[in-house]
C-alpha cells in the first residue's frame, strides 16, 4: 500500500492534451477500482476516466477547466492497491495494461464509464444534498440533469413522465425541441453587452485590452479548437468549388409520409434526411471520385485514393459544438437499417457520447442546414474527404408542372468539392443525381 499518482493517459485517439471538465471525486473520498475519477474533454469527445487503484483520494493536481497534456499527473491516491488483473485497463502511470479476463459483473472499457457490477464509492456531502433536494423538488437522475444543462433546459419547466414522477431523458429532449420551435416567436430584448469576441490563433498585432462589462473572451479549446483547426486546414488546402440546384421534392415528402405510416418503420424516426442519405449513397456509386481522398506522400508526390465504400458523415450541431460522426459502410444498409443508423447517430451526438472512432474515416458528408430554415449554403469540406452536400429546407413554392404553376415541395441541394480531385462535370453530375432521387425516389429501386 502506498500513495500512487495517476497520469493523464492517451485514451486511444492519439490526443496530446485534454481539458478537465468535472471531477467526480474530492480529497478524502474512498474509491474502488473502476470508479470514475474525472470527466475530460478531448478534441473529439467527452471521456470518463476510471481509477486503476483502490484507496483514498489525496490531492487533485489539476482544476476543472485546466488543459492538461498527456502524461501529466492529475490525481494522487493514498493507500492505493492496484487491481491484480488490471481490470481498470490502465497501469499506475496511466499506460495501457494487459487485457483483463472477462468480468461476469460487466466488462469495463477505459473512457466509457464503469460496469454495472463496479463497486460504488460513498457519496460526498454535496451529492447527498443534491439527492435530498431532488426528492423534494424535481426528481431526475444525474445523466438527465447533465443533458438538461447541455441543452439549456430548466428542469422545473419540464413535465415529468417517469413512473415515479421523475423527469426522463425523453422529457428533456421534448422540452428542448419545443423551445427550439418557439424560440423566434417573441422578439428578445436587446442584450446589455453590445459586442463579444472569440479569439483565434493568428499572426496579428496584439489584441486591444478587454473592456470588462462590455466584452467577453471565450477560450478556444476542446471541440471548438479542433473544428477551427480542421476547417482552416481544409479551406486553405483544398480548392473549394460549390454548385447547387433547386429540386421538386414532392415525391420525397410523399414517400416519407408512407414510411412513417408503415409498420416496418413504426419504431424508427423517418425524415427527408433518410431519402437524402440514400440519394447520396446512390450518386457516389455513379461518381466514385466524390468519395475519394487526396493523399500527399512523403516523397513530395500525391495520389488520389478512390474508396469503394461509403462511410456517410452527418454534420451534427451538439451542445459541445460541431461533430461529424459517420455511418460505416452505409452502402450495405437497406432503408430500415439506414434509418435506424441515422437515429442512433443523432441521439448519440445529442447526448455528447459520440466516440472518436465514429468520427474517423468518413468519405462524404451531408449537412442538413434545412433544419435551421436555410435554403442553401457553401459548406467547407470535412478534412480527409473531397465532397460535402447541403440539404436546404423543404417548403411549398410555386412550381411549373406540365405547363401549369402548382404548389410543390421544393428544396435546394448544394455541395462543395475539392477541385484537385473532382472536375466540374463530376461534381455537377453528382449533384444532379442526388436531385434526381429526391425528385423521383423510385429510381432507388433500380
In N-to-C order, the SSE pattern is EEEEEEEEHHHHEHHEEEEEEHEEEEH
The N- and C-terminal alpha carbons lie at a distance of 69 Å
Q: Count of helices?
A: 8
Indicate the proportion of strand residues: 15-25%
Low-confidence runs of at least 5 consecutive residues: 84-136, 181-186
Instruction: Please tell me the overall pLDDT.
Output: 80
Q: How many distinct domains?
A: 3
Helical fraction equals 10-25%
Rg from Cα: 25 Å
What general outline do the C-alpha atoms trace?
Answer: globular
At the fold tier of CATH, the topology name of the largest domain is Chloramphenicol Acetyltransferase
- CATH architectural name of the largest domain: 2-Layer Sandwich
Instruction: Tell me the name of the CATH class of the largest domain.
Output: Alpha Beta
Biggest beta sheet summary: 7 strands, mixed
Q: What report would you give on this structure?
A:
Strand 10 (293-296) and strand 11 (302-305) form a beta hairpin. The strands form five sheets. Strands 9, 12, 15, 16, 17, 18 and 19 form a seven-stranded mixed sheet that branches. Strands 1-8-6-3 form a four-stranded antiparallel sheet, with no helix packed on it. It contains eight helices and 19 strands. It has three domains: 1-120, Beta Barrel (OB fold (Dihydrolipoamide Acetyltransferase, E2P)); 125-182, Dihydrolipoamide Transferase (Irregular); 223-445, Chloramphenicol acetyltransferase-like domain (Chloramphenicol Acetyltransferase, 2-Layer Sandwich), CATH 3.30.559.10. The chain has helices at 125-136, 142-151, 169-182, 222-237, 250-261, 272-286, 335-350, 424-439; strands at residues 2-7, 17-23, 30-31, 36-41, 46-50, 53-60, 67-69, 73-82, 240-248, 293-296, 302-305, 312-314, 316-318, 321-323, 326-327, 364-367, 387-391, 395-401, 404-418. It has 446 residues and is α+β, with helices and mostly antiparallel strands. 25% of the residues lie in helices and 24% in strands. The radius of gyration is 25 Å and the shape is globular.
Amino acid at each position: 500500500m502506498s500513495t500512487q499518482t495517476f497520469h493523464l493517459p492517451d485514451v486511444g485517439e492519439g490526443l496530446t492534451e485534454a481539458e478537465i471538465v468535472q471531477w467526480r471525486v474530492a480529497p478524502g473520498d474512498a474509491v474502488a477500482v473502476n470508479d470514475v475519477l474525472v470527466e475530460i474533454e478531448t478534441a473529439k469527445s467527452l471521456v470518463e476516466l476510471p481509477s486503476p487503484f483502490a484507496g483514498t483520494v489525496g490531492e487533485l493536481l489539476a482544476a476543472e477547466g485546466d488543459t492538461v497534456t498527456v502524461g501529466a499527473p492529475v490525481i494522487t491516491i493514498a493507500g492505493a492497491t492496484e487491481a491484480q488483473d488490471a481490470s481498470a485497463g490502465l497501469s499506475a502511470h496511466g499506460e495501457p495494461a494487459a487485457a483483463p479476463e472477462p468480468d461476469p459483473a460487466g466488462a469495463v472499457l477505459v473512457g466509457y464509464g464503469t460496469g454495472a457490477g463496479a463497486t460504488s464509492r460513498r457519496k460526498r456531502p454535496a451529492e447527498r444534498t443534491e439527492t435530498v433536494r431532488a426528492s423534494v423538488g424535481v426528481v431526475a437522475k444525474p445523466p438527465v440533469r447533465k443533458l438538461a444543462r447541455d441543452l439549456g433546459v430548466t428542469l422545473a419547466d419540464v413535465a415529468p413522465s417517469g413512473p415515479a414522477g421523475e423527469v426522463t431523458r425523453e422529457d428533456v429532449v421534448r422540452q428542448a425541441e419545443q423551445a427550439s420551435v418557439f424560440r423566434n416567436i417573441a422578439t428578445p430584448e436587446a442584450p446589455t453587452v453590445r459586442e463579444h469576441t472569440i479569439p483565434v490563433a493568428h499572426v496579428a498585432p496584439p489584441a486591444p485590452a478587454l473592456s470588462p462589462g462590455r466584452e467577453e473572451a471565450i477560450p478556444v479549446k476542446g471541440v471548438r479548437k479542433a473544428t477551427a483547426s480542421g476547417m482552416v486546414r481544409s479551406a486553405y488546402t483544398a480548392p473549394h468549388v460549390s454548385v447547387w440546384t433547386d429540386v421538386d421534392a414532392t415525391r420525397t415528402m410523399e414517400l416519407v409520409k408512407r414510411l412513417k405510416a408503415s409498420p416496418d418503420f413504426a419504431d424508427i424516426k423517418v425524415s427527408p434526411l433518410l431519402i437524402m442519405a440514400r440519394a447520396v449513397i446512390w450518386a457516389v456509386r455513379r461518381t466514385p471520385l466524390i468519395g475519394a481522398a487526396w493523399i500527399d506522400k512523403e516523397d513530395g508526390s500525391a495520389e488520389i485514393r478512390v474508396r469503394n465504400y461509403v462511410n456517410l458523415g452527418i454534420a451534427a450541431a451538439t451542445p459541445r459544438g460541431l461533430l461529424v460522426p459517420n455511418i460505416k459502410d452505409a452502402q450495405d444498409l437497406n432503408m430500415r437499417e439506414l434509418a435506424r443508423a441515422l437515429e442512433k447517430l443523432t441521439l448519440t451526438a445529442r447526448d455528447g457520447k459520440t466516440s472518436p472512432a465514429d468520427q474517423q474515416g468518413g468519405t462524404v458528408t451531408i449537412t442538413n442546414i434545412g433544419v435551421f430554415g436555410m435554403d442553401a449554403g457553401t459548406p467547407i469540406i470535412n478534412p480527409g474527404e473531397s465532397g460535402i452536400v447541403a440539404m436546404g429546407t423543404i417548403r411549398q413554392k410555386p412550381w411549373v408542372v406540365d405547363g401549369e404553376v402548382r404548389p410543390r415541395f421544393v428544396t435546394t441541394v448544394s455541395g462543395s468539392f475539392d477541385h484537385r480531385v473532382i472536375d466540374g462535370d463530376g461534381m455537377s453530375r453528382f449533384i444532379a443525381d442526388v436531385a434526381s432521387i429526391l425528385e423521383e425516389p423510385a429510381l432507388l429501386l433500380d
